[in-house]
Design brief:
Strand order of the largest sheet: 4-3-5-6-7-9-8
Distance between the termini: 11 Å
Largest sheet: 7 strands, antiparallel
Strand content: 25-35%
Structural class: alpha+beta
Helix content: 25-40%
Number of strands: 9
Length: 194
């Protein structure tokens, strides 16, 4: 799946420089996807979400609080600990390679953790691979995640407490949090290909 998405990017570049994220470049190198002499331009992590649709909503009513620019992502993730009635909704083309349309981030006041919620468009048969990866890379002995397959939508509904991801820090900005989550999800999806 990732192979097809990266190959499409490479083909669309048609002889020009291919713009890839670090994770995509590493994957392309590892799987020999690039033609000889084809150059890569790395997309800076700072610009990964520059064209994203970024909105904040009220948790109770789902009413739009604010439509934001990428500048808002420089705010600390602690913003949502202070504004527990809000959540962030972010759609980005960079999520396409990992079959995620959008991510919602919030602070869960009941469990006192930052949480990412998203749909992961993978077939049901990949369930054991997903659970195995999460078992190895998520601190389930402290907190559990939620991973449910929706046959109606054909995707996995994921609720992931970020505090228990390796190397996550409450000192992260929203941008750093999203970059960290993207890297984690890229590895998660890649693990289903083995």
């Amino acid at each position: 799946m990732i192979t097809k998405k990266i190959m499409k990017k490479i083909e669309e570049a048609s002889g020009h420089d291919v713009e890839l994220l670090v994770e995509e470049k590493q994957y392309a190198d590892k799987n020999s996807l690039l033609a000889d002499g084809q150059s890569i331009v790395l997309i800076d992590k700072i610009n990964q979400f520059s064209k994203a649709n970024i909105e904040r909503f009220n948790k109770e009513t789902d009413e739009l609080v604010s439509k934001d620019t990428a500048e808002f992502l420089k705010s600390p993730i602690a913003y949502f600990k202070e504004k527990q009635n809000e959540y962030l909704y972010l759609e980005s083309e960079s999520f396409d390679v990992i079959n995620v349309d959008a991510i919602a981030l919030e602070f869960d006041e009941v469990f006192e953790v930052y949480t990412a919620m998203f749909g992961l468009a993978l077939q049901k048969k990949f369930g054991p691979s997903l659970h195995e990866y999460l078992k190895e890379h998520f601190q389930t002995e402290i907190m559990n995640y939620s991973l449910m397959f929706s046959g109606e939508d054909g995707l996995w509904e994921v609720n992931l407490p970020l505090n228990y991801l390796k190397d996550f820090s409450e000192d992260f900005t929203l941008e750093e949090t999203l970059n960290h989550l993207f890297s984690f999800l890229f590895s998660l999806v890649e693990s289903t290909e083995n």
